[in-house]
Fold these 3 entries.
Entry 1:
Amino acid sequence: MAEIHKDAMARIGAEQEVENLSGLSTSPGKDIFVVRDNGTTCLMAEFAAKVMVPYDVSASNYVDLITEEAEIPLARGAEVRGKCGTTESELQISWLDKVYTLKLYFVKEGHNTSKRQEAVWKMHKIQFVYDSSERTYFKDAVNPGKHTANSHHLSALLTPAGKSYECQAQQTISLITSDHQRTVTLLLSEVRIQPFDISADFVFSEEHKCPVDEREQLEETLPLILGLILGLMIVITICIYHIHHKLTANQVQLPRDRSQYKHMG
C-alpha cells in the first residue's frame, strides 16, 4: 500500500515546472516548450502547429447549412502543463483562456526488429478540445458549444529511445470528434521533440529524422553526387585522350602512298 502511495505521489510530483520559450524561437510560427522535473529537463518540444476544424453556418436562405473551416494556429504565450515519467509523458497546451487545449501523449516501449527487441518512443494519442462559440476563428457557428476530438490507433513519431525526433516537413494527423460527425485535422511542421531520456539540460539528444526529410535530403544531394561523378568521368576522358595523343605523336608516321616506300631506308 505504501508503495502504491509512493508511486502515486511520484506521478503527481512529476507534473512540475513548465516553460514556454517560444519567444526564443527564430521562426515566428514555431513554439518551444520545456517540462522540467527536479530542476532537470525531462521533455522538450519545438513545433509549428495549427488545427483545421469544420463547422456549420447558415446559408443565405437561413434554411440550409454550409460547412466552413476554422484555421486555429497555436498561439504564442500559451499556457503549458506537462508530466514526465519513465515510460509515459504528456504535454498539454492551452490558449485563449483555455478555449483551446491540445494534449500530446507519449509512450516508451519495446519494439521487435529483425535482430532483437529495441526500446522506442512514440506519440500514441492526441486530444484537441475547442469551443465553437469562440468568435475569433468561428464565425456565426450553428449550435456552438464545446467539443473534443481524439486520435484513433495513433502511432506517430516513432523514434529510437535516447534520440529526439526531427521533421521539417508538414505532417497531417486526423482527429475524430466525440460525436463521430467531424474530422479535425492537426498540421505539424518544423518538429523537434524528445519526451524521454534527455541527457543535457535544454539540449536535444541526437536527432532521428523522419523519412520525408531523409528523402528530401537525398533528392537534394543526388544531383550533386551525379554531377561530381560526371565531372570526374570528363576529367578521366580528357586525361586518356592527352596520353593517347602524346604516345601516338612520338611514333614514326608511315606514308599512306606505297610508292614512297622506295625512298625510305
Entry 2:
Amino acid sequence: MGRSKCTTAAALALCATLAVMLPELVAGKRYIVGGNMGWTTNYNYTLWAANQTFYRGDWLFFVYDRNQNDIIEVNKTNYETCNAEHPVHNYTTGAGRDVVELNVTHDRYFISSKGSCYGGMKLHVHLSRIPPPPRAAPIKSDSSTFTVLRSQLVIPAVVTIAAIWDSLLLRV
C-alpha cells in the first residue's frame, strides 16, 4: 500500500511540474449569442455576429425559451432559405441553455426551426484564422543563461524532488 502512495505522489509531483513548465494554453472565448437578448425573435443576429471575431475553440452559448425556439445547425443553402428539414446537427437539449463549440475551421450556420428563422432568427458564424502569437521581446544582454535555466528547469526540478522526498518520508 505504501508503494502505491509513493507512486501516486510522484505522479502528482510530475504533473504539477509539467503544469508549471508548460506555457499557458489559450482558452476559447465564450459568447452568449445575442448578448443580453439571448436567442430570441426580433433581434438582428447578423449585426451581432459582425461585431464579434470568432476563432476555432470559441464557444457559443444559446439562451432561449425552450417552448418557442430551438437551435439547428444547417448548411449555407438551408440557412438562406430557412429550411431545417436536413439539419447538420440539432443542438437543442430541451433546457433552453445550449452550448456549441466552434471546433472546426469552416463557417457555421444556425437557425430556429420553429418559424422564427423567417423573422431573422438565424446566425452565420464566420471563423477567422487565429492570429500569430506576439513576437518575444529580445533577451537583454545583461541576463545570463543561468537565470533562464533557473526559472525554467531548476525551480520545477527542486519542487519535484522535494515532493518525491516528502512522499518517501511518509512511507517510513
Entry 3:
Amino acid sequence: MEERPYRSASGAPIALRRRQHSASCRELAVRCPRLQLRSLSAVTSAVWLAAYALFVLSENSMVLSAAIFITLIGLIIYLHFVKIDQESLLVIGSLGIQVTSSYASGKESTTFIEMGQVKDVVINEAIHMQKVVYYLCILLQDPGDPQGVSEVVPLFQSSKPRLDCLIEVYKSCQEILEQRKTALQSS
C-alpha cells in the first residue's frame, strides 16, 4: 500500500492511496482533507453571534432556539449528505468495478458495475468557466450496439483530482482491463 500526495482541481491537498490485492485486483482511494474544526467553529460562532444580536434587538428567545436548531440540522445534513472524505475505486478484473463514496458522518454509498458492462475507462476533458477540467469516467457498453456507449459514469466527482493523479488511476485501471482482454482472447 502506498499513499502519494496530490492536489485537487481547486488546489486543495488530496492523497491517492493505492493498494494491490492481487495481479487483477486493485483498490485506488482518493482522500480529501478532513473537516477542519476551526472552520466549523467559525461558522457556528458567526451564526450564533448573529442570532444573539437579533435576540438583543427583539428580546425574543425563540431567535436563539431557532439559530441553535438550524445550525445543528445544517451540520447534520452537511456531514451526512455533502462532505465526502474518501472516494474509492476497487477494480477486480474477473468481476467488475466498485465505486464507493465515504461521507464525513460514516455513511457509505457504493455502486457496482459488472465487468461485462465496462467498455473502457477514459480520461475526459470539459471546459468549465474558461478552464479545462479533466475527469475520469467509465464507459458502459451499449447492449444493443457492441461498438456504442450507453452511459458515461464519472468518477471522483467530489475530490476532483488534477490530471497527474487521474493518469495514475487510469494506468492502474488500464493494466487490469488489458489483462482481462488478453485472458478473454486466449480462451
